[in-house]
Design brief:
By secondary structure, the protein is an alpha+beta fold. It folds into 2 domains: 119 residues, PH-domain like (Roll), CATH 2.30.29; 51 residues. Helices cover 37% and strands 24% of the residues. The protein is built from 5 helices and 8 strands, in the order E-E-H-H-H-E-E-E-E-E-E-H-H. The strands form 2 sheets. It has a 5-stranded antiparallel β-sheet, covered by helices on one side. A 3-stranded antiparallel β-sheet has the order 6-7-8, with helices on one face. The longest helix is centred in the first third of the chain and has 23 residues. 16% of the residues are buried.
């Protein structure tokens, strides 16, 4: 879901991004259907379904369910862009604000195991200087309705525009996306 608000004052706008609840509900259904199908298939094997199979199969859907339900109920993964910085909702539900001028860069990282199995999920990462002056690197959850590449391009563009004082503030997310040269757009 995306919303945008703006006014005549170029310093008074915000663009909000949040996970799509329908996508998260579908993800839950698919993960549990897969786990249920796997357990059913294993139950057909000679010897039946022992407790070890439950220990092997069930952690994956339980972990996915935990984070998906936190996204649905705790609103984690939300992002709100403003002229002076952005708000993000962390996995524990806290809202944190980060000014654009504290961010060094936005980039696309890989969550998973790209070195060994050549697999992983692209996630948005960013390096910034925190309130105590220490350099930190964080990653946003990958449950927003834009790809990590698009989101990194949009946020990097916003960071650069903020440094210029937003000479041409965005009217909407679509407007902001149209100004950004993002690979794969």
């Amino acid at each position: 879901m995306q919303t945008a608000t703006s006014s005549k004052d170029p310093r008074d706008w915000k663009i909000s991004l949040s996970p799509n609840p329908l996508e998260q509900a579908i993800l839950l259904a698919v993960v549990w259907a897969f786990a249920g199908g796997l357990l059913y298939g294993l139950s057909l094997l000679e010897g039946g379904l022992g407790p070890l199979w439950y220990v092997i199969v069930l952690p994956f859907p339980l972990i996915v369910s935990f984070y998906s339900l936190r996204g649905l109920t705790g609103h984690n993964g939300q992002l709100e862009l403003q002229p002076d910085g952005f708000w993000r909702t962390t996995t524990n539900g806290r809202k944190l604000f980060l000014p654009w001028d504290r961010v060094e860069k936005f980039y696309v990282g890989v969550f998973g195991d790209p070195g060994v199995s050549d697999s992983g999920v692209p996630v948005l990462g960013f390096a910034f200087v925190d309130g105590s002056g220490e350099r930190r690197v964080e990653h946003l959850s990958g449950n927003l309705p834009l790809s990590a590449e698009k989101l990194a391009g949009i946020l990097e563009f916003a960071r650069q525009e903020a440094a210029k004082g937003w000479p041409n503030p965005p009217e909407s997310l679509k407007d902001l996306i149209s100004r950004v040269a993002v690979p794969g757009s």
